[in-house]
């Protein structure tokens, strides 16, 4: 563990005992129903504990983020019935609340990791990694000894040709484990399951994994609620917390809301959004009621406000499997 110093990301002392949750939309489009469902669970969980709820804008990807969607997303969440104590529109003691305004904080964390010997320059392209895996059309495997060896062989040549490297965090030997509030215990082998992950891309853009750890740490977030498609990334984040000398938050990974065909919802494929529902005249209480039903919090779809379910929220009631939003659910939503 690196020694403590003034450059280390840290939780402000006045926040260390307060339950704090957050939701962090990416302004790359209007929020779909799956996004809304996760936001509701994060909101209910924070409020049920008597804690603060923080809104953060994850506009880290400068190429895909759009300024117009920052306001759109906040308006959608307010329409749904969410309120927050801190955020880009209301301020707070842990700002700024937009990742695009926090790059200096990531620089300081990166310098700390580099000084402790956790980073190395990687000159391999995505094509290099796919060819090494003999899977040109598939996902690259965990970055490990074979990838490091190839980087050593090609690095000097690519460096001489002027290629900028990405920076990777070197996975240490050993395991990381945590207990999810819904999924239970999980253990990752750092080198086999996580590998050496990018913390800064070759084009200079910050990697999500480093940014989210720094942000949650400096904002004093005690509980992270998100979709269970992100559960595998928890191992990476636990390693980064450890390297930065900080305790991780508690995690709650929620099973996804799926399309009728069983595929996951996504902005890029035009999944049903809060903005579209609002424009169609659907009441927000109807959206909340359907989503609460899909989570196992209501026995049947019922019109209810987000605020009304705060007191009765119980993690133990949450469904442990994904929920398909079929034509029957959509019909109820639209009052058909």
UniProtKB/TrEMBL annotation:
The keyword S-adenosyl-L-methionine does not apply. It holds the Pfam family tRNA-synt_1c. The keyword Chloroplast does not apply. One of its GO terms (cellular component) is cytosol. Residues 21-316 form the Glutamyl/glutaminyl-tRNA synthetase class Ib catalytic domain. One of its GO terms (biological process) is glutamyl-tRNA aminoacylation. Keywords: Aminoacyl-tRNA synthetase, ATP-binding, Ligase, Metal-binding, Nucleotide-binding, Protein biosynthesis, Zinc. Residues 1-29 are annotated as: Disordered. NCBIfam families: PRK05710.1-4. This is Glutamyl/glutaminyl-tRNA synthetase, class Ic, catalytic domain protein. It comes from Truepera radiovictrix (strain DSM 17093 / CIP 108686 / LMG 22925 / RQ-24).
């Amino acid at each position: 563990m690196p020694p403590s110093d003034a450059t280390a990301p840290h939780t402000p002392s006045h926040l260390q005992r307060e339950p704090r949750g957050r939701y962090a939309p990416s302004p790359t489009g209007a929020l779909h129903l799956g996004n809304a469902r996760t936001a509701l669970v994060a909101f209910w969980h924070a409020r049920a504990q008597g804690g603060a709820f923080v809104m953060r804008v994850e506009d880290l990807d400068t190429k895909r983020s759009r300024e117009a969607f920052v306001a759109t997303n906040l308006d959608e969440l307010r329409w749904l019935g969410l309120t927050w104590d801190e955020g880009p529109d209301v301020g707070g003691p842990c700002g700024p609340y937009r990742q695009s305004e926090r790059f200096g904080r990531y620089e300081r964390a990166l310098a700390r990791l580099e000084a402790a010997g956790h980073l190395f320059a990687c000159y391999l392209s995505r094509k290099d990694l796919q060819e090494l895996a003999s899977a040109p059309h598939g996902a690259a495997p965990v970055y490990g000894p074979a990838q490091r060896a190839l980087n050593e062989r090609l690095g000097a040549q690519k460096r001489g040709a002027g290629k900028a490297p990405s920076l990777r965090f070197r996975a240490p030997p050993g395991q990381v484990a945590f207990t999810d509030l819904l999924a239970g215990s999980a253990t990752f082998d750092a080198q086999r399951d996580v590998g050496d992950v990018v913390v800064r891309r070759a084009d200079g853009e910050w990697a999500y994994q480093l940014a989210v750890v720094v942000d949650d740490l400096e904002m004093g977030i005690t509980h992270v609620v998100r979709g269970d498609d992100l559960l595998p990334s928890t191992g990476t984040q636990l390693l980064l917390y450890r390297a930065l000398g900080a305790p991780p938050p508690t995690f709650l990974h929620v099973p996804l809301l799926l399309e009728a065909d069983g595929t996951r919802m996504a902005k890029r494929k035009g999944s049903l959004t809060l903005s579209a529902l609002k424009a169609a005249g659907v009441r927000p209480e109807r959206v909340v009621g359907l989503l609460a039903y899909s989570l196992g919090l209501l026995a049947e779809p019922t019109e209810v406000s987000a605020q009304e379910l705060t007191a009765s929220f119980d993690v133990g009631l949450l469904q442990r499997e994904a929920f398909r939003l079929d034509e029957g659910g959509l019909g109820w939503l639209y009052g058909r």
